[in-house]
Amino acid sequence: MCHECDLLIRNQLIEEGSKIECPRCGHVLYRQKHNTIHKSLAFTITALILFFPAVTESIMSINMGSNSQYQSIIEGANILLLEDYYLVAILTFMCSVLVPLFRLMILFYLTFSLSLGLFHSSFFWSFRLYHYVEEWGMLDVYMLGIIVSVVKLSSMAEIHPGLGLWAYAGLLLSSILATHTLNSHEVWQLLRHKKQQQTVNRGIC
Amino acid sequence: MAKSLSHCPIADNQSGKNAGLVLCTECHSIYRFVANVDMQCTCCGAELHQRKPNSLQRTWALLITSIILFIPANTLTIMNVAYFGNDDPSTIMGGVILLLQMGSYPVALVVFTASVLVPVFKMLGIAMILLSLKYKVNLTDKQRIRMFRFIEFIGRWSMLDIFVISILAALVNIKGVAVISAGIAATAFGGVVVLTMLAANNFDTRLLWDYK
Fold first, then answer.
1. Nearest by CB to A6, which of B17, B29, B165?
2. Higher pLDDT pick, A182 / A202
3. Which of A118, A129, A140 has its CA nearest to residue A184?
4. Contact between chains at A151 and B104 (C-beta distance less than 8 A)
5. Into how many domains does chain B fold?
6. Is residue B146 a part of any domain in this protein?
7. Are residues B21 and B92 in the same domain?
8. Is there a single domain that holds both residue B177 and residue B150?
């Protein structure tokens, strides 16, 4: 059954590296990729290591006359909070820090335990949550925001990139790779399979 | 690399709903639909619906709210630049014009696209899809689903302006020389972005094929 138009489609086996598209609306139904969990785990670990320097270290600093000032991602949200723009501050913090971190943590939890062959019923809701918040992680948009700010400020002051910027670029790259290498279909199939095994072992079915 | 295989539907335009089936949109399990029962996926625990409940009403409500919020978002101050004590409040369009005057056309184009074109296009697009469903206008399904996918894809990018403000406000905060602070329109604009994203989320694409 197609996700986007509800068309019934016959299930068939396909070869490695190919994909199935819905004939009616063109939605990609299934992509055959294997061994994605290990690859994704590697990228997730990289992203998690880079995460903390990326949000707490300074992204860039400016020089204006004798004054200099630097900024990190956390501070960007914090300054809005200090100016009493609570909603905007929460929104910024959520999209640029909380959701990306949360998704990476779920991804790590899942891929790490699945690659060790562990299984727990919490995998199901955590993976659902992972997809649910997908749209709200906006690391890529923030990157564009940094670029635009640099241009806006370039006439006013001298700008120097900080350590946070490099960490941030690495974080962006590895988190994109981590999410795109993972084949959700494979994960769901694996989870379903494990659940069935578990119920058989317990003698419920 | 990835080649697409021709895939045959079971019957011509037979939808899962007509066949009495329901798909778990989370984990892709398929179940036989039972009416008047709160169905739950036994695999992943998600609620099962043949169509998202009240999809059209919710989408309309969120869309209308975002259109209303769009007015203060564009007319009020979004950012205030105090340069040596002189306040210089600017609106969204004001910021774009300033970038144009600075001569950075590509960046002006990016900002204009993200903070004006994208929200307008999104709201118009969703309204068009909803109206075309209501009045059964002849748009082909392919056109509509393409439009919707595009809307869903570009939605997040209008957060750009909010991020830029948060970066600038934190960076340029030198008392007496230059202070950049956010304006009230930032809240309204943030609201527009969130509401349009929620509106797109609440719309069930499968309805496009139901109304035939």
1. B17
2. A182
3. A129
4. yes
5. 2
6. yes
7. no
8. yes
